[in-house]
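Could you please consider the sequence and fold following this short note?
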Amino acid sequence: MRTLFQIIQQEFQKENDLVLASIVASSGSTPRGAGSRMLVGKKGRVAGTIGGGSVEYRAELMALDILEKKESCEHEFRLNRKDVENIGMICGGDVTVFFQYLDHNDPIIIELAVTAETLYKERKDFWLICDLHATSGMSLYSASYGLTGNVDVPSSILSSLSARPCRHRSETCDLFTEQIGTSGTVYVFGGGHVSQKLVPILASVDFHCIVLDDRPEFTDPALFPDAAETILCDFNHLDQSISITDADYCCVMTRGHAYDTIVQAQLLATPACYIGVIGSLAKRAGVFHRLVEEYGIDERELDRIITPVGLNIKAETPAEIAISITGQMIQVRAERKAAMK
């Protein structure tokens, strides 16, 4: 969604109106679920996707018509058996799409795009709220910034916002809410070859990365152009450099077992939601023994550590290992989001 807001700014500067097509409900086996979005301009799809195939094609045509009418609307698409066969898909079902007309002269939308970028940079938890009854009703909400935009949102809805996309219908309102920004950070301990492959891949799927090392040459920002920050730290005293929350992920890949062990001992004292450590099963046994015997770690706590880190895809090269780690973190992020109410 960050990219979509950035593109909205770029297109508005060119005086181009847009339509934001968002899936607000789906049933059956559909390619994309609620919260999927695409931007459509006068020449067709600009960015994003709502699943491709028949639904996306028909939605794009509707969006072009909406650009002419300058009115938002909602439409339900039904994929029947013939539709599915014609586009070579195995997916079928119903998809409800809300088409929101975005006028390039609308100061509210411009303000929201600017505010969204600020919230993304500051790593805030925040939500996009769309009024499904209004032509251009849209707001952002964060605990720190409050409500920005032109939608009057009842306090009962603000207090019940969750990680899941949700439609709130009543006699007085019809709102769609979705968390589009999260405070979670990925802390990568060690700036070696795997880290240099890992950070750009994580960044490409919207993970906010900070790299830490105790060697100046491995905290050079030029090595990690996609990282939010690089920190020269003392691995023995991580609390002097960072404060880890329950929304944060940790990847441990320092230059040696000794430092990996020191870092793990400290991470187990934090509420980090993910602790992944590079290495073999043989290394795991030795490190776990040290954590228990030398650092007094409860054996039950060791279950929080994922090592060898990454999905088991027979990865060997630094790039392959980075892909396996990213896949695992995407999985953990999705599971956490599904579990949040």
Summary: The first strand starts at residue 18 and ends at 29. The chain is about 35% helix and 25% strand. The radius of gyration is 23 Å.
